[in-house]
Amino acid sequence: MNKDMCQHTTRDRGFTLIELLVTISVIALLLAILVPALSAGRGAAQDIECKARMRGVLTEFAMFADPTAGVPQGDSEALCGDKFRLEDFQERMYGVSEFWSGADEERQSLSSSEVSLMCPASTGPLERRSGMPCSAGAIGPQANVSTGFNKRLEEKWLYLPEFDRNIRQPVYLSSKVLSQPDVPLVFDVDGAAATMAGEMPYYAAPPIFADKIVDMYESGNFWFPGKRHGDRMNVGFVGGHVLSSAEPTTEPFWRWTYVPE
Description:
Blueprint: H1 2-11, H2 17-65, H3 86-94, E1 107-110, E2 126-129, E3 139-140, E4 147-150, E5 155-160, E6 165-170, E7 184-188, H4 191-196, E8 203-204, E9 233-237, E10 242-245
Parallel strand pairs: 4-8
Antiparallel strand pairs: 1-2, 2-3, 4-7, 5-6, 7-9, 9-10
């Protein structure tokens, strides 16, 4: 009788230490397999959403640049002809400066579901401030800015032969820019890198040495690409398409050097 009770107690005592260790090892192995797969799936979804948002921005830009579309252009409406500034379009997309929609609030938090210019793969929140343009820091904190515009479409060098020097000049765009489909317009930027370099992240431009143009961008101080999508950078073009590349400055048909006359 005592022997049967002893055997019964042994069988019902639960897992042995070895069985427990084996179970933990199996769970750890499954997690090691599943976590990267889930992370990759989440990254792929964010990449798709980022590109979709950029396409939306490109569509809005095409309408903004078309003088017959009747889209409000803010301060650019005071310019002659169909000229406009890229900053006015940027402010419209963020809803700041003359496009402020926050009633009497001085500051307003932004979420990635509200603003197309927030990459879903970025982690930091943003807020917009009333009464100032983007160039004065209307969107911040700047380290969290994840999407920028082509700075060569906002500012250029003008050479003065009589003084043998270059001066900065604002770029005035027109509907003619829509005939340049391979010009990058909007892309992923690294706001933290821009902040560390002492520059604002709203605009960026890479140094290009293959042409004969010597300009302020050759220093590299205005280039802070955000390679958040599998070490690749998403770039939206004036023509309405979005491409990605690990080496965006070496792509043969990406016209980074284009500057409007």
